[in-house]
Design goal:
The protein is an all-alpha fold. It is 80% helix and 0% strand.
Length: 161
């Protein structure tokens, strides 16, 4: 594995772990706002991000690369509303998509076909991640300032497995 690709994948591991940390912080905030369904949704999202990090971790090791973990930045802890939480989640997923696309470009430039093949799963996954985040933002927009609607959205988010 070329050093440039290894460094980019190590950076992506950090971003995925930061994503988990961010979503756990969002979960804690939502729990404090008495929205257990939304909190559960974010907690499950955090677990998924750790799985993504571990997928990359294993791939780097399989390619005889070296995983070098970096410090994880502390996430934001307060928001003005559940809507803002989910808007930030969408913004963050768009950031992650851009990061993965940049690695795809680098792997293509380096003619690293194994990494290109590996990253296709992440490219498809990010389409789903952005769509889910966008759907959640739209649900919260529809019920803004409506406690009954907020209750229904929270119940819907609690159904995530």
């Amino acid at each position: 594995m070329k050093k440039k690709i290894q460094e980019a994948l190590n950076d992506q591991i950090n971003k995925e772990l930061y994503s988990a940390y961010l979503y756990l912080s969002m979960s804690a905030y939502l729990e404090a706002q008495s929205l257990p369904g939304a909190a559960k949704w974010m907690k499950l999202q955090a677990e998924e991000e750790v799985e993504h990090a571990m997928k990359i971790f294993s791939f780097v090791n399989e390619r005889d690369g070296r995983v070098l973990l970096a410090p994880i930045e502390g996430p934001k802890q307060e928001w003005t509303s559940p809507l803002e939480v989910f808007q930030q989640a969408l913004k963050h997923e768009i950031f992650v998509t851009e990061s993965i696309n940049n690695i795809v470009t680098s792997a293509s430039d380096e003619k690293d076909y194994a990494t290109l093949n590996f990253l296709q799963w992440f490219v498809a996954e990010q389409v789903e991640e952005e769509a889910n985040a966008r759907e959640n933002v739209e649900m919260f927009k529809r019920v803004e300032n409506n406690p009954h609607g907020l209750f229904m959205v929270d119940r819907a988010l609690a159904a995530r497995e």
